[in-house]
Amino acid sequence: MSNLLSVTEVQVESHVFPAMVKPPGTTKTLFLGGAGVRAGVYREGEFAKVTAIGVYLDDNAVEWLAVKWKGKSAEELVDSIDFFRDIVTGPFEKFIHVKMILHLRGMEYAEKVKENCLAYWKATGTYNDAAGEALENFVKVFNGEDSPPGAVVLFTQFPCGSITISFSKDDSIPETGKSVIENREVSETVLETIIGKNGVSPAAKQSLATRISKLLNSCSKIPEK
């Protein structure tokens, strides 16, 4: 297994993502897989960056991913749809730390996530009524939330398929979440829309590919999957 003590923090814009965090709703400490800015959008006629995103993984992810991806370069990984799908669907905990650069209302952010999830399901033909209902419940969690610059939205994802949603107005991470959505499609697609084929953060994908490649290639042996 790779030496996770070598994992470093990453600064995106003015925000520093620490090397290790304990996400809401779990007893585990996860390591920073990668981080990057969300692709910018046009707002009031100007091109603006919206959020900084950090993606954390359970340390079990290193050995699990090494079976298939050890020996691959960062360039090979960043161009591989299957690599990022393996991160999205792998049987280990994940944590998405979304830091606001622009001021977004909670529902404004949630509706954009909803739009991206529906677009992915439509493109892949994977929409189902249960996922659609769970996505509506996901959006409702953001009702009344406000995210000024510096605030964070936090997603803790579990192998069972649930996703815990949390909020903070600063860099502090709460011990428990605000709500849990019990639906694998929603949980996985939230991450898919960030680092998948048409993900909103190419910078986070590049960071993940670079950092994970180094970790995998430092594994002393490859366990059987």
TrEMBL record:
InterPro entries found in the cross-reference section: CFI, Chalcone_isomerase, Chalcone_isomerase_3-sand, Chalcone_isomerase_bundle_sf, Chalcone_isomerase_sf
One function term, GO molecular function aspect: chalcone isomerase activity
Domain of life where this protein originates: Eukaryota
Pathway terms, separated by semicolons: Secondary metabolite biosynthesis; flavonoid biosynthesis
Catalytic reaction annotation: a chalcone = a flavanone
Chalcone isomerase domain location: 12-215
Gene3D superfamilies: 1.10.890.20, 3.50.70.10
GO biological process: one example: flavonoid biosynthetic process
Keywords of this entry: Flavonoid biosynthesis, Isomerase
Keyword Isomerase appears in the UniProt entry: yes
UniProt keyword Ubl conjugation, yes or no: no
Recorded family membership: Belongs to the chalcone isomerase family.
Function as written in the Swiss-Prot or TrEMBL entry: Catalyzes the intramolecular cyclization of bicyclic chalcones into tricyclic (S)-flavanones. Responsible for the isomerization of 4,2',4',6'-tetrahydroxychalcone (also termed chalcone) into naringenin.
PANTHER family given in the database record: CHALCONE--FLAVANONE ISOMERASE 1-RELATED, CHALCONE--FLAVONONE ISOMERASE 1-RELATED
The protein's name: Chalcone-flavonone isomerase family protein
